[in-house]
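Lecture notes, unit on protein representations.

Consider one protein chain, 278 amino acids long.
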Amino acid sequence: MRSNPRLLTIARHASQLAKTYRSFPNPPISPPHATGTTPFACTGFPPLSLPHLSRQASSKSSKHSKSSKSSLSHPPATSSPAPPNESDDPFDFSPLQAGIKKAIARLKAELVNLRATSGFNLAALEGLKVELDKQGTTAPLTDLAQVMRKGGRSVVVLVGEKDHVKPIMSAILAHRELNVTPQVVSGAPLELLIPIPPPTKESRAEAVAAAGRVGEEAAGAIRAARQGARRKLKGLKDGKKVRPDDLRRAEKELEEVVRGGEKEVKTAVEGAKKGLEG
């Protein structure tokens, strides 16, 4: 059997490499990527070429790069809990309480006005129509002047333009329900002073009746706020968003809030009537 010269050459080179390797106390081992050769390359021979492994590595690297870019540009969606809807709380009566508070504040302001003017119809003065020329052109008094109380026995009308002073005075004098005489303030040609006459039995009675009317208006505003709150509870019940026990408790508490507002209205009106009757 003939020996192969190429195999003998390879064997000699391998033996030399082994002797050289053993001569080092700590043989250096260089990683493949540092030397650019494969782990099994031998000196004097060309490095092994593994094209199919290179293609697979390149393909995996490309896929990993695309996956990384995709994950960076499209971060995973995280589900966050939806914020609680305050309107679904059957015990949230803040809209009802705000409506009651607004109605009572308006009531008290109107009652103070009635007591300060002793039955003088300030609303009638503010709603007066003023005839500006012979052609019959009219305008609301509040578009031409500002009406203000001055103390407890007089009202001041601040006119915006000098040409409107006489038409406004004529309109006030012609209004029978007012029954007052405006006067131009000395040194202030745009200011009209209206003295309020002493209260009479009739004016007191009218003031008491007016107090009852503004009280009814406040009670009506509270009833409207109550209806809105009850509609909310009905919606929660129809949508099965509230337990029956909680619904009954909420309805009971709602009525307690309404009764508190109605009681405050009644107390304010009765106190004003006593003061107006003198």
